C-alpha cells in the first residue's frame, strides 16, 4: 500500500516538540511500508552446468533471481518520506497540527497563501504574573483578583476585538466603499493577503470561574506566545495579573479537531483515509480563496510518494 500525496491533521499533545511528532509519524509510516509485501525479485537467464546424457557436463539456460535486488542486500525499499509541516505549534501548545506528504506539500503553500484563520481555546489564571506569561514560568508578581467580574472581562474582550477589526480592514488593503469589498465580506474573504501583525478576528469568554477562565480566540498570523502575552495583558487591563495555563488549537483553516488523528491512530491506513477524506474541502477552500479554475494543484491519490531506495 502506497501513501497518497495530500494533507492530513494530527493532534499534537502538549509537552512534545512538533519535530518529534513529525519524526514519529515518518518512522511509523516507513516501518509499515517496509513491512508490507515487496516486489518479486527480477529474474535473469544464467547458464548453469548440468549433467548431460553421455555423462558429460553441459550448460543449461536457467531463470534465477537477481540477488542484488534482494531486501537483505539493498536494504529497506522505503528509506525516506517527503513530509512537510503546516502552521507549527510550540512545545507547550497542543491541538490540530497539519502535515503534508509528497506533492501534497505544495498544498501547504497554497493554504498558507489563503491566510485562513485559526481557532484556539486559551486557559488563564488570575492573580499571578510570570516571566514567560505561562503558569510554568518564574513567578514575578502576585495580585488580587476579587474585583474582576465576567462583565468587566467581556468589556475588555470587546475592546480587543474592535481594535483588531480595524487592523483587519487596514491590512486587507480593500476600499470598503466598493462592490468588491461587499462581495468579499459576503464570502467571508476579507483578510490580510500579505504579511501583517497578529490579528484577533473574534474572541469570547467560554468559562469564568475566578481565578480560572477560558477564552475562545480566532486569529490570523499569530504565535502561541502571542496568545499567552494577550492573557497577561488582559490581566493588566483588569488591574490585576494573569498567566496562561493552556493553549489548544481547535481549528487550523479547514482542519478541525474531528479531522485530527490521535496518537493511537497514527498508522498507515488511518493516515491514508484522512488524506482522502480531506482532499475535497482543501481543494474547495483553495479555489474559493485563490480563484483556482481547476484542480490541477491537487495530487492524484493513487500516486505513492514514499521515496524508494534506488541502487
**Helix/strand order:** EHEEHEEEHEEEHHEEHEEEHE
Reported for the largest beta sheet, the result is: 9 strands, mixed
Domain count: the total is 2
Report the sheet-strand fraction: 25-35%
Overall structural class, as computed from helix and strand content, comes to alpha+beta
Number of strands: 15
Tertiary shape: elongated
Number of helices: 7
Mean pLDDT: 86
Q: Whole-number radius of gyration?
A: 28 Å
Low-confidence stretches: 292-311
Distance between the termini: 21 Å
Percentage of residues in helical conformation: 25-40%
Any overview of this molecule?
The chain has 311 residues and is α+β, with helices and mostly antiparallel strands. The chain has two domains: 1-34 and 64-116 and 257-311, no CATH class; 117-252, 2-Layer Sandwich (Pseudouridine synthase). The protein is built from seven helices and 15 strands. The protein has helices spanning 18-35, 71-74, 105-114, 150-171, 179-187, 224-237, 268-290; strands spanning 6-12, 43-51, 57-65, 78-81, 83-85, 94-101, 118-126, 128-130, 139-142, 199-209, 212-220, 242-252, 255-256, 260-261, 306-308. The strands form four sheets. Strands 1, 5, 6, 7, 10, 11, 12, 13 and 14 form a nine-stranded mixed β-sheet that branches. Strands 2-3 form a two-stranded antiparallel sheet. Helix 3 packs across helix 7. It is elongated.
